[in-house]
Amino acid sequence: MLERLNQAMEYIERHLGRNIDVAELARTAATSEYHLRRMFSSLAGMPLSEYVRRRRLTVAGAEVLAGDETLLDIAVRHGYGSGEAFARAFRAVHGVGPGEARRTGAALNSQPRMTFRLTIEGSNSMRYRVMDKPAFTVAGFKARVPLVHSGPNQALVEFVRGLDQRALERLAELSDQEPHGIVAVCDDLDPGRAEGTELDYYHGVITSGPAPEGTAVLSVPAGDWAVFSTSGAAPQAVQELWRDVFTQWFPSNPYRSRPGPEILRTRLSPDRTEAEAELWLPVEREQG
Question: Strand 198-207 relative to strand 136-146: parallel, antiparallel, unpaired?
């Protein structure tokens, strides 16, 4: 998988002056467009679209400073329809407009080319299983919250704190299949997983029965799920599990992520400093 990702990185370099065809990029990486975006954002720490933009403007920045072409020629070659659009994008990355950069020889920011390598840490074993799960329903309380990669998600914390505990206890009685009990379900995430983008968050249960009045419902079709378990300090252990799944497990196993909700079952210690967790991700086998 990593070799294919690096071939995709070469494809990006060859096509920086044109619109990147993400479907073709996914074919180069021998995976789906959905999984490519998910994998890239987890490995690189930024959305694929942001990396392409930064690489394009890194190359454009060098051409601006070289002074061999007009700014408009550079803008057009890098896919910008006007000098104004190019200037806005250039300033967003470099902190200075292209005209001023050329006049003053300003220092510019550079996005290095990325390559991917797999680092194996033999001291850590990842506990997982893959199962075929029939269709099910998520029933619970729903909020739209921002995506936070590290540290507490304050919007999510405040939403959960505001829920009626007796209502949650009644809801927990409807849990009739794995993962059991109250779970956290994230759906409708931005494909690039950019920090600050919004997602649908459900605090509820997995059930095959009818949902109580006043709860939100998410119907999930049948499919394969990879289930990962961990324990450790909260919330770091859970956030590190999410990272390790995409940086270590997917590159080493014949599966790719597929569209669908991501489910987290967490049990905290009495002082809330330690956590045991299961992460459920929708997957499918890689083809070929």
Answer: antiparallel
CB atoms within 10 A of CB 15: 16
Calculate the CA dihedral of residues 189, 193, 198, 201 and round it to 10 degrees.
Answer: 50
DSSP H or E run through 286? none
Gap between the Cα atoms of 227 and 282, Å rounded: 9
Task: Render pLDDT for 5-37 as a digit per residue (tens, 0 to 9).
Answer: 889 999 999 888 778 889 999 999 888 999 898
Q: Which of 10, 39, 112, 21 is nearest to 283 (CA)?
A: 39
Whether the pTM exceeds 0.85: the reply is: no
For residue 123, give Cα distances in angstroms to 12, 126, 216, 251: 35, 10, 42, 18
Which ranges of the chain does DSSP label H, i.e. alpha helix?
2-14, 22-28, 33-44, 48-66, 71-77, 83-94, 98-104, 154-161, 165-172, 236-244, 250-252
Residue range 68-100, pLDDT digits in tens: 899 999 999 888 888 899 999 999 999 999 999
Nearest to 40 by CA among 15, 78, 12, 80: 12
CB 283 within 8 A of CB 257: yes
**DSSP secondary structure letter of residue 270:** T
Q: Please state, in angstroms and rounded to a whole number, the distance separating the CA atoms of residues 151 and 243.
A: 13
Exposure string for 160-178, b = 16+ CB within 10 A, e = fewer:
beebeeeebeebeebbeeb
- Which of 200, 201, 197, 198 shows the shortest CA–CA distance to 182? 201
Distance CA 231, CA 269 (A): 11
Using CA atoms, how far apart are residues 79 and 199, in angstroms rounded to an integer? 30
How far apart CA 100 and CA 90 sit, in angstroms, is 11
User: Terminus-to-terminus CA distance in the chain, angstroms?
Assistant: 12
